[in-house]
Specification:
Blueprint (H helix, E strand, L loop, with lengths): L1 H9 L1 H21 L6 H16 L2 E3 L8 E3 L6 H24 L7 H23 L14 E4 L2 E4 H23 L1 H11 L1 H6 L4 H23 L7 H5 L2 H10 L5 H24 L8 H17 L24 H17 L2 H26 L7 H18 L6 H18 L8 H19 L11 E2 L4 E2 L2 E2 L11 H23 L1 H11 L1 H6 L4 H27 L1 E2 L6 H15 L3 H10 L4 H10 L5 H15 L47 E10 L2 E11 L4 E5 L6 H9 L5 E6 L2 E2 L5 H7 L1 E3 L12 H9 L8 H11 L15 H14 L4 E5 L7 H16 L3 E5 L3 H7 L2 E6 L2 E6 L1 H5 L2 H8 L30
Parallel strand pairs: 11-16, 11-17, 14-15, 15-16
Antiparallel strand pairs: 1-2, 3-4, 5-8, 6-7, 9-10, 9-12, 12-13, 17-18
Helix pairs in contact: 1-12, 2-6, 2-7, 2-9, 2-11, 2-12, 3-4, 3-5, 3-9, 4-9, 5-23, 5-26, 6-7, 6-12, 7-9, 11-12, 11-13, 11-18, 12-13, 13-18, 14-19, 15-19, 15-22, 15-24, 15-25, 16-17, 16-18, 16-22, 17-22, 19-20, 19-22, 20-22, 23-24, 23-26, 29-30, 29-31, 30-31, 32-33
Length: 930
């Protein structure tokens, strides 16, 4: 027992560093909304600065200048520490001023990607300026021990943990009681509110960035005597630190510090258990601790879909639809073949490497560019493919080409496991999960000699097909043309498949959920299934790339699949264009070991700074051009190859009704029955015992004062809010069905805040809805018909992000109606329209209803509601207070009280026409927009 306690105490050293870095993460996130992946690199920079100052040298990070400056004599502990922390503070201020202040309105994911670029720059600079050899650091705390039963533990770990706890106490008191702390909390809650009260969010952010960098630097300095200075190890301290910060929800200092200390102690204890029990794996156990903690936290805290009002913005750029791809594909293959034929040796090897890494980049295009899931584990999945090929070749005797295909399928299984957290989280937490999984797999498998990993590597046999040698060769034949052509063929096939995916309905589904998961689910897209499909496809492609890398190197070793190299490759892919096939090919050319890298190293002699340049370019790309370099290339209008096929006249469309072929017969049975629906958020009863029916051929209005619960009721009916009661459509019970299943059953809906797919065109937005329609009409015809009905046919190819608010509302309505729903629930479709446009929209909604789609309409335009609705249901404080035809509702006492805010017990004596919300001018209800 005492041995276990001693190891727990021993782990307090690393745990204190995790806690300190986590504390620094909380400070930067509170003040500027940035999850700074470079925090560990800042700690590393401070530690190296301190170590060199203790030897009398100051590190100069600027390339071209001397690496260090001789100070004449070594500095003492406190002067060296003070200078190092001052430099850390300056770095924090510079990082915020140059990078994150200009990005203050960017998404959290975009800021995180920029911080990954910063981490790459710092780590590469340190490795280049200080080298990778171990720098000894003298102890700061006294080297004493304490007895714990029959075991002993060093006291320096305890002092280090105590120091971080004291800092945490000071930070907690500062944020709770000081004016600066209160101002920071206020600015974190509302930047606009901070400005209105005379606070400066910029000054607050500058101060917190300086403070967080000092805390991170101090942790690096204090741990330096305990953990050998290594450029990679310190940067990856960010993984357990992020786990601790997630436990603290990026806001609680105490929870973050306690979690950090606990992670360090548990990691130390796992090392003890590995030595005690032979059946435990000898590597990877300590890396599993933060992964398990992250997964557990996300299972508890994560949600399958974002809540209403949650802002999930992406900054990944447009994913262009590949058109006329046959000619450019043939030309590209021809150019590549000629390049391979005219080169040899290292140049041909660089081209082969570019081809293989382009295949890997295509996996990132699918997962991140199309599906919007930022994964840092794609190179790790390639490593899974390489090591699996070795097992299949050497141990199971499975030959080529079956071995790489089976290995890719195995990588697919791992990829689906990597993607499972995406079912409950999105954005930054998912990125953290993929990074933690990559760290775990590298340690548990790639560096584990008990499996087929380890430093000696796993041999891979030469690929042969029908007796023909496809191997890379050796000596003067290296690399052989047969191997190069095989890799090029794989790239061509995978590239064409990814192009088909982008043009398919599955690809459109991926882009839809990338843009807006709630809206995608409302359109009938199975969001969890689509996410896992994207991870599976991406992992299969990555597994193929890994198999090719294994055949290229003839040996699977950990170094080519290291986590940090994977992060560097992610940076290159982002720079090249992570959303397009062209970007993937460019990424292969630009990647370390690729053709561009070789040329720069040979002719410009700056290969040592390639990682630095990549990190800087990643930051610039995120800030200025999320579409990447591929978007800046001139677009060539390739001729379209026409093949003989039957033609259809898409211009022969019925007049603007939604579905002349799908008119539903009116019956006495209701289509939608809502009974006793209630929604409760904590102590707030947002909706209570709401019941009503909608019959065929009806437009029913749902009105009420602000905060009455109208949108909440729609959320409950469509499955976006947990609710009691029952919802029945066409006799089928939907109360327990997921949102996408309710949509496919015939419940269409729009959203109060529109929630379109901003990366897609108007036609693609509407096509998402039309692709799951029960109508037998051709999808393209139905889309054009609906666009004509709402007056958007001329804007069919326009990106919806460029439309006015009113036209965006029309796109939202068109997307719902294109699905030919049984009942359409429209939430404020006239928002942003003037009175004439609103009356015109009312006519179109009546056309849709006459064509067979009943409508539940929520809108504050009472002229629209009272004019076109057959019945009106009135909510107040979440309860139905009136129901009936418009004329009856206008004079109902309960409705008048609700809109005037008069208590029920008080008498009222007022003309209903005096209430603007219940009064409409004399207008021709059939007036249309000119």
């Amino acid at each position: 027992m005492t041995d276990h306690l001693a190891y727990l105490v021993l782990g307090l050293g690393n745990g204190a560093v995790y806690a300190a870095i986590g504390l620094a993460l909380v400070l930067t996130f509170k003040s500027s909304g940035v999850v700074n992946f470079a925090t560990g690199a800042v700690a590393l920079y401070a530690a190296y600065t301190y170590a060199l100052l203790r030897t009398g040298e100051l590190m100069i990070p600027i390339p071209g200048l001397p690496k260090t400056v001789d100070l004449g004599q070594p500095l003492g502990v406190f002067p060296a520490m003070a200078i190092s922390l001052a430099i850390s503070a300056v770095l924090g201020v510079l990082f915020y001023a140059l990078i994150f202040r200009p990005m203050r309105n960017a998404s959290v994911v975009a800021k995180a990607v920029a911080s990954i670029g910063l981490m790459i720059v710092l780590q590469a600079l340190i490795a280049q300026r200080a080298g990778t050899s171990i720098v000894p650091v003298e102890p700061i705390f006294d080297l004493e021990t304490i007895s714990i039963g029959s075991s002993t533990a060093p006291t320096d770990r305890i002092w280090l943990a105590a120091t971080i706890v004291v800092i945490a106490i000071a930070a907690t008191l500062m944020f709770r009681f000081s004016r600066f702390g209160v101002a920071t909390e206020a600015a974190a809650e509302s930047e606009k509110g901070a400005y209105l009260t005379g606070l400066s969010p910029d000054k607050i952010a500058f101060s917190n960035w300086a403070l967080s960098s000092v805390v991170a630097g101090l942790s690096g300095i204090l741990i330096a005597p305990l953990v050998a200075l290594n450029p990679v190890a310190y940067a990856l301290f960010i993984v357990p630190a992020l786990a601790a910060t997630l436990v603290g929800n990026f806001s609680s200092i105490w929870l973050t510090v306690v979690a950090g200390l606990a992670i360090g102690s548990l990691q130390s204890e796992t090392i003890n258990l590995q030595g005690t029990y032979d059946w435990l794996p000898k590597t990877g156990m300590s890396e599993a601790i933060p992964l398990i903690l992250i997964m557990g936290f996300l299972v508890v805290k994560g949600r399958p879909l974002p809540d209403r009002g949650t802002i999930v913005r992406q900054a990944l750029g447009r994913a262009p639809r590949p058109e006329h791809i046959l000619i450019p594909t043939v030309l590209a293959i021809a150019v590549a073949v000629v390049a391979l034929l005219v080169t040899s040796g290292s140049y041909r090897a660089a081209i082969v490497t570019s081809v293989i890494l382009a295949v890997l980049a295509l996996s990132q295009v699918v997962v991140t560019g199309y599906a919007g899931q930022v994964s840092l584990a794609q190179l790790t999945l390639a490593g899974v493919g390489a090591y699996a090929v070795s097992v299949l070749n050497v141990h199971l005797g499975i030959p080529f080409p079956y071995a790489p295909i089976i290995a890719a399928l195995f990588a697919t299984v791992i990829g689906v496991l990597v993607g499972l957290p995406a079912l409950r989280v999105r954005g930054l937490p998912l990125t953290v999960v993929t990074l933690a999984l990559a760290v775990f797999l590298e340690a548990f498998w790639f560096r584990n000699p008990s499996l087929n990993g380890g430093v000696n590597g796993a041999p891979i046999e030469t690929p042969r097909l029908f007796g023909f040698d496809l191997g890379i060769g050796a000596g003067e034949d290296y690399p052989r043309m047969a191997f190069a052509i095989m890799c090029l063929a794989v790239l061509a096939v995978v590239g064409l498949c990814v192009a088909w995916l982008r043009r398919s309905s599955l690809g459109t589904d991926m882009l839809a959920l990338r843009a807006n998961e709630r809206s995608a689910a409302a359109a009938g897209i199975n969001v969890p299934q689509t996410k896992l499909t994207a991870f599976a496809i991406g992992a299969f492609i990555a597994g193929l790339a890994g198999a090719l890398l294994g055949y290229q190197q003839t040996l699977a070793t950990p170094e080519p699949y290291a986590v940090f190299l994977g992060i560097s490759l992610f940076a290159v892919m982002y720079i090249a264009g992570i959303t397009s096939i062209t970007g993937a090919v460019l990424a292969g050319i630009m990647a370390p070991g690729g053709l561009l890298y070789l040329l720069i190293d040979r002719f410009l002699h700056i290969g040592d700074y390639y990682a630095v340049i990549s990190g800087i370019l990643l930051i610039v790309t995120v800030m200025a051009n999320p579409d990447g370099i591929a978007s800046t290339l001139p677009r060539i209008r390739w001729p379209k190859l026409r093949f003989l096929r039957p033609t259809t006249d898409t211009d022969e469309m019925p007049a603007p009704g939604v579905g002349a072929t799908t008119i539903r017969q009116s019956t006495d049975d209701p289509l939608l029955v809502v009974r006793g629906v209630g929604v409760k958020y904590g102590a707030v009863q947002a909706a209570k015992d709401v019941s009503f029916e909608i019959f065929p051929g009806e437009i029913v209005g749902l009105i009420g004062p602000n905060g009455a619960g109208k949108t909440t009721v729609i959320d409950a009916i469509t499955g976006f809010a947990p609710a009691t009661g029952s919802v029945t459509l066409n006799g089928g019970e939907l109360s327990t069905a997921a949102p996408h299943k309710r949509s496919r059953a015939g419940l269409g809906r729009s959203f109060q805040d529109v929630e379109l797919y901003d990366d897609l065109s108007v036609t693609e937005n509407v096509t998402v809805g039309a692709s799951r329609s029960r109508s037998k009409d051709d999808i393209s015809k139905r889309v054009r018909r609906v666009l004509a009905m709402v007056g958007l046919i001329e804007a069919a190819d326009t990106e919806v992000a460029t439309l006015s608010q009113g036209r965006r509302q029309l796109v939202s309505v068109a997307r719902v109606l294109a699905a030919d729903p049984v009942v359409a629930l429209l939430d404020e479709p006239a928002a942003g329209l003037d009175s004439t446009e609103s009356r015109w929209l009312g006519g179109r909604l009546r056309d849709a209803c006459d064509a067979g789609t009943s409508i539940l309409l929520v809108d504050h335009d009472m002229e629209l509601v009272l004019t076109i609705c057959d019945r009106i249901i009135v909510l107040d404080l979440g309860e139905v207070i009136a129901s009936g035809p418009p004329d009856l509702i206008r004079t109902d006492d309960n409705v008048i009280r609700a809109y005037l805010g008069v208590p029920t017990a008080e008498d009222i004596d007022i003309d209903p026409a005096a209430i603007p919300e219940l009064h409409i001018p004399k207008q021709d209800p059939q007036e249309v927009m000119p």
